[in-house]
Amino acid sequence: MKTTISRNILSISLVMSFFMPTLTWAAVKEEESKAPTIELQDLALPTDVKDLGKQSGSVYYSQTSKNKTLMPVHFWGEVGKPGLHFIPLDTKLVKGLSFAGGGSSTANLEDVRVNRVVKGDIVRREFDLDEGGDINAHEFTLEPGDTVFIEKDRTFERRTFIISLVTLAATIISTVLIVKRIEEINRTNK
Length: 190
Description:
Blueprint: H1 2-33, H2 46-49, E1 59-61, E2 70-77, E3 83-88, H3 93-99, E4 107-118, E5 121-127, H4 135-139, E6 147-152, H5 155-189
Parallel strand pairs: 1-3, 2-6
Antiparallel strand pairs: 2-3, 4-5, 4-6
């Protein structure tokens, strides 16, 4: 009987020691930033995801972070793996983008946006990661529910369109000149 009670107390102590740092962190974080506390249902614990199949799709779980509490962050637009990612708490923006596969080859890294809901309002932060980013991007901490968006860089598409128009115009002009030259030769030979 005493052994069973001792095991139960030990089990409860282990569970409490796992959850208490997270709850304490959330309370301290709220006092520091006056932001709302992190809801536990918004977090995924490693034990919750260990048996989930890791496959392609729109939901990803950080496989590199063992025994850490994970938070949901949305990565949209021109990233390697767009969708909902569960990444470790306290992940910085640049590292979070790395979890999402980084910017694609067509990403406009000069305008990376992070949207966050704070007390019913959307707060938008913009970062320039074109040459690796500045210190603000490397120190900006993502929070549960953030949405990171990278637009597509349309420069290449615009350049291709203009080159296509110039090529078409050159083809039409050269065709007209060839037709006129042929008509001229035909008149001369008559």
